[in-house]
Amino acid sequence: MSLMLFVERKMPPVVLTWLRRAFSTKQRIVLRRVAGSGWLRTLYYGFFSRAFRREQQAVAAGLALYHSTVDPNSTRTLLRRNIHRIEKGLLMRPRRERFALSYIGETVDCYRECRMAGCAADWAKDLAWAHDILESYFEVVADEGLVERAQAVFLSVDHPAEEGRGGRVPYSRRGSCPVSFDSFAALAKRRRSVRWFLQTEVPHVLIDRALEIAAESPTACNRQPFFYRFFDEPESLRILRPLPLGTAGFSHNIPMLCAVIGDLSAYYGERDRHGIYIDSSLSIMSFMYALETLGLSSCPLNWPDIETLERRAENLLELKRHERVIMFIAIGYPDPQGLVAYSQKKDLHSLRSFNQPKLAAD
What we know:
By secondary structure, the chain is α+β, with helices and mostly antiparallel strands. Helices cover 48% and strands 8% of the residues.
């Protein structure tokens, strides 16, 4: 338990309220001055606040690993990114005669290294996709020195078996959506955060089916920079269930807990440091919808950036420095006798606007 949580639970409410007001006033005064000055912001977060230090460490560790020449997963990540870039070039209208010249050599080198890696069998689908995209690329891009040299490297590689190739290229979408709006709206309204579960074992095969849907979610350059860790053994649950905040009163009732981990080694620059949160969240929402269709329910659990909790999660989950917890999710069969929160949602006018503000050309 963090010191702040301990204090909140032990201190008289009147004293706690006074301290909160005093702290809020101090924050308001200090941050108002800091917010308006670049050098004051640097000074404040460099010397007086630790709020972003773990994120900075994780970003730096991720960049170091991304640029590593010895880590096979870094090579695989770069291959996935570059193949997706080429894939987008293939579907452009009009398609340029020459594109990807600045990274086609790097891409075929990555492809060759991944084919030679000891874990290539685990990457079979990735490599088959890369093969099909590169084959299509060399068929349509006009001859050029860089392209010819890259094609020579590509042709020298021991490619996947014929049955594992073909078809993984841009295609035309045809037909209407198989799910009606009303059916999807019913699913969205049915899915609510469930906190009371039956003490019934959650079949792992159903989790895998839901993850297959989660994997279809969009991610930047198709990196998929996340990993789902599931825990349903009694001792693991006993240790992990109290960790996320917001579980007071029902943590003992959770039959399966999932920790979604973001991987910052998937990015080559600091500008993409928020990608793990965006991409993971897109995947998580699809995962929770899929669970609902399988008769399971879920509850996403709050994970604030509190150093004591981060450190405990790092130790318990054996996280690497470039990995960060995105959130925890409680999973199980819903107890039909348990209540769920009504959770009134915002009206449309509170959520959207059209063409505001009016924009003018620079």
